[in-house]
Amino acid sequence: MATERTLSIVKPDGVQNGHIGHVISHFESNGIGIRAMKMVRLTQAQAEGFYAEHKGRGFFGELIEFMTSGPVVLLMLEGDDVIAKNRVLMGATDPAQADAGTLRKLYAESKGRNTVHGSDSPASAARELHYFFSECFEIV
Ligand code: ADP
Ligand code: MG
To answer: What is the C-alpha to C-alpha distance for residues 14 and 109, in angstroms, rounded to an integer?
Structure first.
């Protein structure tokens, strides 16, 4: 198994509902390291660029409005097989479909307000980490 890095985001609902610590603790207790972290409020342009693959989908406007509605916490995760492992720990996009014990089953309110983002492949992990953490690549 290879050591990998991936991007996680505690979305605005997770921050507003007081789950930053729970999410980080969930990662750490599952053997995942936090290698970089920052709390920001995304601009409209940042959110649209980040979610460019979804442009044109019916939920795009709602997604951008939500992701810019309050601060988010950006996390660079590191660990063995962490890209796939994070997707398992997150649970399905719709919390109603998410497995018991996953972050979205524990904390998410709806398909839109679903507490966490996670990169879905090595290519998206690389793109998404560079999108938010390019300045950290020299130091981590
Ligand atoms: P995931 O975050 O599980 O990778 P997607 O990449 O398909 O899911 O979608 C990105 C985000 O867009 C979701 O996490 C969710 O916040 C939002 N989203 C996706 N589908 C819908 C939908 N049908 N209605 C509202 N929001 C949605
Ligand atoms: Mg996705």
So the answer is: 10
pLDDT in tens, 20-58: 999 999 999 999 999 999 999 999 999 999 999 999 999
Ligand 2 centroid distance, CA of 5 (Å):
16
Q: Is 111 in the pocket of ligand 1 (CB under 6 A)?
A: yes
Segment 114-128 mean pLDDT:
98
Instruction: Give residue 105's identity as a one-letter amino acid code.
Output: K
Q: pTM of this prediction?
A: 0.96
d(C-alpha 95, C-alpha 107), whole Å = 8
Q: Tell me 32's DSSP state.
A: P
Helices (H), 96-135: 103-107, 122-133
Options 3.40.50.2300, 3.30.70.141, 3.30.980.10, 3.40.630.30; CATH for 3-136 is: 3.30.70.141
For residue 136, the CA-to-ligand 2 centroid distance in Å is 23
Choosing from 105, 111, 113 the residue with most ligand 1 atoms within 8 A of its CB, the one to mutate for a pocket test is 111
Expressed in angstroms and rounded, the spacing between residue 42 Cα and the centre of ligand 1 is: 17
